Amino acid sequence: MRFFMVIFLAIILSGLTIHQFYVSTTLIRFVQEERSLQITAQVFADDFELTLQKLSPRIRLNPDNKIKLADSLTKKYFQRNLVFSSEGRKLPFDYLGKIYRNDLLVAYLEIILDSTVKNFEVKNTLLFDFTDDQKNILHFRNKGKRRSFLSVPSKHTFEIKLNFSE
Question: Which of the 8 DSSP states describes residue 113?
Fold first, then answer.
């Protein structure tokens, strides 16, 4: 009987280490002086690793076992699943790199806007291919004000207007 109690307790406690929610956060900051969007995206590293393993089964994150491959796959994944566009034209971003913070992978991206961009759309489907329960929170900051959006599989594209007034 004691043996079964130990096994039962082990099963219960092992379940506590797995996170029960699936959410990413993306902060998009408009820097008017530089006409840039500075983007910080955070995803759970273990979920992201499992997603990348569909593309490259031997990839390991935190620490990276193949840094160049991990960066290449991360960049490609973000290019497909965090898409910025303006007037039907895709706005490419520079992938600046990633770090690991606790259980998170934090990716840094930047878009330099040309003078014609007055607003843009952002499509965030990060990790929707991992689980149907995934939700992505987007925060847009401009001149000290913040707008927030919740991206879910049924609604994942949002229009954002830039504020250039002083």
Answer: P
β-bridge mates for residue 22, sequence order: none
Residue whose token pair is 């569909």: 54
The whole-angstrom separation of Cα 92 and Cα 79 is: 8
- Name the token pair of 96: 């600046």
Q: Are 146 and 140 in contact (CB under 8 A)?
A: yes
Residue 103 near residue 45 (C-beta atoms within 8 A): yes
What is the pTM (predicted TM-score) of this model? 0.85
Token readout for 24 is: 């990413």
Q: pLDDT tens track of the chain, all 166 residues?
A: 555 444 544 554 544 445 567 999 999 999 999 999 999 999 999 999 999 999 888 889 878 778 899 999 999 999 999 999 999 999 999 999 999 999 999 999 999 999 899 999 999 999 999 999 999 999 999 988 999 999 999 999 999 999 876 5
